Every structure is written in C-alpha cells, then in structure tokens.
C-alpha cells in the first residue's frame, strides 16, 4: 500500500469542458493514512511526488485542471488530443496564468494572458513573450482512471528546453543587440544543435532583460528580476555576451563587426539592434528631469524623480506614456498631478482608433489623469531642470518631471549605407528575415513582408521580437523557416489589460462589439473591407481565438460582424473546426513534428 506522508491536503478540482473553465467541484479532505478516494479520484502525497487519479472521461479537445498539491498553483493540465491523454504544467512560465483558463486548439494550449502557446504533447513553446516551456507529466490509463504522477520539484518549475553547448564547429554567429530578440536567437541556435561560437554584443551594461514590466510595475521591478537568464546560463551553453560594448561599424563585404579597435569576424550576422527612445527636436528636450523610458537606467531616473514630483507631464498618449501615467498615478495618487499631452484627439488614436482610445481616456480620467489633446508641444522650459511645458495652443503646464513617450528610432545606423532600409526605418528583409548574404535582422529593427498582405511591416512587440529571433536563428542554420505568425501585443493600465492581434496599420473601419464604457469589448479593425486586426478588453481569450482565426484566414466578413450575424463564439467554433496544430517546428525539438 502506498505510504501517505502528508497529514492534510486541500484539493480543488477544476473541470474544463471543452475550453470553458468551470469550477465544478471543491473538495477539502484530510489524509491520515488512506489514499483519498472521492468523486472518482484520489491524491497521494508521496515523498517526492503527487499521484492523482481522475476519471478517464475527457472528451476529445477537452482540457481539465487537476489540483495535485495543497497550494492554489499546485495544479496540472490534462488534455485529450488526437485520442491521447497528455499532462503538462498548468501555470504559464511567463507570469503564472492558469492555462486551464486559456484556449486549447489542436495540440496547442494558448495562455489567456499574453498569448503564449505550447504544445500539450511535449510542453514546447511555440510563441509568447517568454523563453520557457511546460513540464510534462506521465499519465497511465488504468481501470477507467487516469493516473497522473507529478514530481514535486518539477510541478511549477519552468522548463528550459534541451540545448547543446559550444563544441568544435568553427562557425561564428555574431548577434548585435542583447534584447529579447537576440536572446531568443542565441537560445534557438543552441536548441537546434548549433555547436559553433555565439557572441551577443550589447551596448547595455546588463545581460538581456525583459523591458515590458518597466512601464507597468514601475515601482516594483528590480533589474535582476527582469533579467532573462542568469550569468551561469551563458557559461553553461557557451554563449559569450559582451556587455557595455557598442558596435561602431559593420563591414558587410568582409563580414566583420568593429568594436573599438577590434574587428570581430562573423560567418553569420544577426542584427537585433531594436530601437532607441525618440527625443523630439524641441527646445529644452535635454533639460534635467526630461526622460524617455527604454532602458533600466531610464526607469531608475523616472522613479527617483517621481517620488518627489508634484507635476508630471507625459508627452505622447501611446503605450509607454499611458502605462507610465497609470503606474505613477496609482502609486502617488493625489500627491501628483499628471497631464498627458498629444497632438491626436484621443490616446492611442493611430493604433486603436477613436472609439477604443476614447474609452481608455475615460478610464484614465476616472482615475485622475488629465489630458491636453489636440495639442502639440512647443517647447520645454526651465533652467537646468525642467519647469514647464509650453503647448502650441498657448497653454503652459507646470512640470518638474517630463516623460517622453514619443516612440522609438530604429537603430539602423550601422548598416544604413549598406543594406536597404524601409520607409518605416527597419532593415528590410525577406520572409526568412534575411537582409543580405549571411546577414539577418529580427525584432523591432526588422522590416519584413507580412504574409497576409506582402507589405513590409516593422513590429514593436515583445512576442514578435522573441518569435523573430527564433525564426532568424533557424534560417541562419539553413533550416528554411518563413515568418508566418500573427503579431500580438498587450498593454496594461489601471489593472486592466488590452490585448491586440493582427496588423491594423491603415485600418479604415472599426466594428465594436461590447461595452466601451466598461472597457468590456472586442473591436475589429478592417482595411479595404477585410478584418486585419482586433483588440479586446475583459473578454476572455478573445485575442487567442482571433489570432488563430487570422492565422487560418477564417475571419468573418465586415458585414457579418457589423450586422452581428457572427459572434466571438462562432469564430471560436470555426477555429476549432479547422483544427490547428503547433506549427513552429521549434528547433526540431517538438515531438509533434517527429
Ligand atoms: C517600457 C517598455 C514596455 C513595453 N511593453 C510592452 C508590452 O507590454 N507588450 C509588448 O508587446 N511590447 C512591449 N514593449 C516592446 C518590447 O519590449 C520590444 O518590442 C522588445 O524589447 C524588442 O526587442 P528587440 O530585441 O528587438 O530590441 P531591444 O529590446 O531594443 O534590444 C536591442 C538591443 O540592441 C542594443 N544595440 C543597439 N545598437 C547597438 C550597437 N551598435 N552595439 C551594441 N548594441 C546595440 C541595444 O542597446 C539593446 O540592448 C515595451 C517596451 C518598453 C521599452
Ligand atoms: S502569463 Fe502566459 S503569456 Fe504571460
């Protein structure tokens, strides 16, 4: 008989019929000396593992959260796909969203927070903002039961995919840029078995880190906490990272990058140079306490000053500006006045349109943020330090801190005379992210032909930067992999998330389904009569479903959406009926491809 070591365990079982999670049973039980057998399942708390049994009654395409341990997050996800049962971690390795609340399509579970997707067959991540996959756990089918064994140490441990380290392959891949895209490329090279030399060169003084929390959790984040991997990781996998090192020039003909007096020869080059926060050409823009937010040291300067600031002016009513306004106002409430200035008529007008932008403006106003819209900045005034911001409409705003959320300048300087630069400022590539012989570009700096339209686009999203690093690495290794995904981003303001998928540039129509006043809606962006993108708030899984529909090219017509002939549920059904399997071929590791 199995030995029970724990005296008490609270068990919660969440069943997830098809894809809609529902809490159906909550069972608290005390284990003394016998296995718990209730409602057709039992849990054993062994020394180093939990063993759980549930009824073997999942339907095809169903996923179910199964609580295995005492803490809320001690749960796994059991799924039935292609007639087989699979079990993976339930907690998303990004920031811990329960995957059971996400969307299972084919063998792919999509995270409800930021659209990461993982194959439930092997836990490998296909896309997302993070670098880790899911643990997988063995399941036995016995006497009408599914018996799941979960090693405790693996339960909520993020999984790093198998990688090789440096060997005797003489090939040298140089990656210029230590952002998430460069990091993703380096990891993918090692995952795919590349044993040559990898050098990441970054002008920043730190190892690659995640920038996205800086404008959302402004007062919480620490630099080390943002770092993607610790130093040992780079040592273990033989990845050289040259921090505080600026590449001054590149000789594409001779395949050299120049750093100071040194020439570093490459066999393959990845340009992942991202962008630099743009400082508009205005009088006074370089006064003290006028800051942009791109790097961690920018964040330190902003939060330092924000602690004592009485009047903050945010220039630019888009993502960085609005997120930072929300984070600072939330922290200091009435101690600080925050005014957001922009020449547009509502925030986010260019990306989200007037309706959705107006809704977000109201959300900010309800929380005390003020706006000066339709109002360009004339100059920033002060002596040494900023004191005021003068607007083109004649108003003058007092300011002891100015935050410039005025976009980025793509870092294309190194190659602008040698490679083609798109009008959007990105390094122009083909669909394989190749810019020239032996030269690739990925992340915020690449301008690539979007598969759905053929138009060159430059996308500034975290998921896309990670994905492109992955795609570029496979192409560097001679494994032809086109970039065929649907871009996704999220933004978080006042504890609400807006998620967006697609490429909506040049949209000429917006169809809103839902309640903008409550920020509970799905907005569809159409261009020339075709839905090209969508944004949503407070609508679970909307973008996870819509990004799949866009990828499968099964979005309903504008007319059907306008006349409400088709709902999100209908789109979900269409996506599910088409089926969809993990298509990433991640570095040859995905079991689904074998
Ligand atoms: C505050 C903030 C919040 C964000 N929030 C979100 C969000 O919520 N959702 C979302 O989807 N996206 C968000 N983004 C965007 C996302 O972070 C970017 O899309 C992503 O970081 C791009 O990664 P990258 O590797 O392409 O470029 P970058 O992160 O810009 O990295 C490029 C690196 O290259 C280095 N470099 C450039 N030139 C040289 C040179 N000559 N020599 C050496 N090194 C060089 C730079 O110093 C930098 O380290 C946010 C960005 C910021 C700044
Ligand atoms: S929590 Fe899953 S992608 Fe962010």
Automatic annotation (TrEMBL):
InterPro entries: FAD-oxidoreductase/Apoptosis, FAD/NAD-bd_sf, FAD/NAD-binding_dom, FAD/NAD-linked_Rdtase_dimer_sf, Reductase_C, Rieske_2Fe-2S, Rieske_2Fe-2S_sf
Keyword Flavoprotein applies: yes
Cofactor(s) essential for the protein: FAD
GO molecular function: 2 iron, 2 sulfur cluster binding; metal ion binding; oxidoreductase activity, acting on NAD(P)H
Rieske domain boundaries: 49-148
Keywords from the UniProt entry: 2Fe-2S, FAD, Flavoprotein, Iron, Iron-sulfur, Metal-binding, Oxidoreductase
Protein family: Belongs to the FAD-dependent oxidoreductase family.
Protein name as it appears in the record: Rieske domain-containing protein
Lineage: Eukaryota, Sar, Alveolata, Ciliophora, Intramacronucleata
